[in-house]
């Protein structure tokens, strides 16, 4: 830990661990409901559990991005954070808004728009909170004597993510218009500007963990940014096929959706290429596992599986089925969740001075969670393909089909148990690291740059 203010990141990471745990709990509630064990229905109906599960995903990932920025930006700027006090105020207010939103879901206080269910009054509080965060980061960069491509790509990714939240706050009476602009938030986040955030964080970790020259890594970062904008913006069109928009979106969305895997493939090639060129071995192998794993799994989940069901000829059958859930689970896990865990794995030994990456629990966390996630993805894939055939091709009733695929959800729950075991190992290691220590100030464990 080079700077005292980087300690702020710890509390964001700790919040991440809590929110991730809650997300998993609600995932199990839905999983058991799917196999008929819905004893909590009177208190937590399926739609409430689903909204809570998906929104917790978004919130814990954004919290992780904020923590990553509070750790990375001071180091890249070679100065302390502009205001530590402001960062803590922002974290507390962020948590308060999140708690109110989740509690509101349980009392049917929401907008009912998938991924954007948060009630409108809370939207304005989110905007104020994120602007506070961006101001703190921007002033840190503005007053710094040092600039880097990694630093600026990360900042502009976060800035654009904030700006693209605004279209989701516009009110429309027309369902097509509402859905059209909702995808400006959802798609252009996860397959647009969040990829810039991913690129910035990946660049930082690769510089630290591989020892490859910064100039080489940041040249690759330009390629990744270019591929992201080439495909991601017009690739939004694959969400417009079936909401009443003009038919030309079939062609536009199809073509640019086919290009979207290029950005994730570029990230995977970039990370593996930098690892092969590494000058020295960094002792923190766990952080390196999560970093390389994120690049590879994001290509499989977000790139390959995304393209596999967004091509118009396929999507006309798979749209709105469990095939979408299959893609979503592995895409979010590989592209963003694993990346947040990579940053935490790298930062925690530096903030606390405890080198827990030398033990077995870190490897167990990595392999159990990844094998478990692949198992869940496989179960959802088989269930989704079965659903498409029985429901969309043979015309069977939706509820009848759901009974036919119950067995696959039993398999998914078993895989989810293995995944949860891996995350439990990760959280236990996080707790064992303890709080940030002043003794760790001024140095990072095993830095190669």
- Please report which band the strand proportion falls in: under 5%, 5-15%, 15-25%, 25-35%, 35-45% or over 45%: under 5%
Return the average pLDDT rounded to an integer: 92
How many β-strand stretches? 0
Q: What is the rounded Rg? A: 21 Å
Helical content, roughly? over 70%
Return residue spans where pLDDT drops below 50 for at least 5 consecutive residues: none
Structure description:
The chain has 449 residues and is mainly alpha-helical. It has helices at residues 8-34, 46-77, 84-105, 120-142, 149-163, 175-210, 214-232, 248-259, 261-276, 285-310, 312-318, 322-352, 361-393, 398-404, 406-433. Helix 13 runs antiparallel to helix 15. The longest helix is centred in the middle third of the chain and has 36 residues, at 175-210. The chain is globular and about 65 Å long.
Which terms would index this structure?
449 residues; mainly alpha; 74% helix
Kindly summarize this structure in a few lines.
The chain is mostly helical. The chain has helices at residues 8-34, 46-77, 84-105, 120-142, 149-163, 175-210, 214-232, 248-259, 261-276, 285-310, 312-318, 322-352, 361-393, 398-404, 406-433.
Lay out the secondary structure.
Elements: H1 8-34, H2 46-77, H3 84-105, H4 120-142, H5 149-163, H6 175-210, H7 214-232, H8 248-259, H9 261-276, H10 285-310, H11 312-318, H12 322-352, H13 361-393, H14 398-404, H15 406-433
GO molecular function, one term: cytochrome-c oxidase activity
Membrane topology: Multi-pass membrane protein
Domain Cytochrome oxidase subunit I profile: 168-394
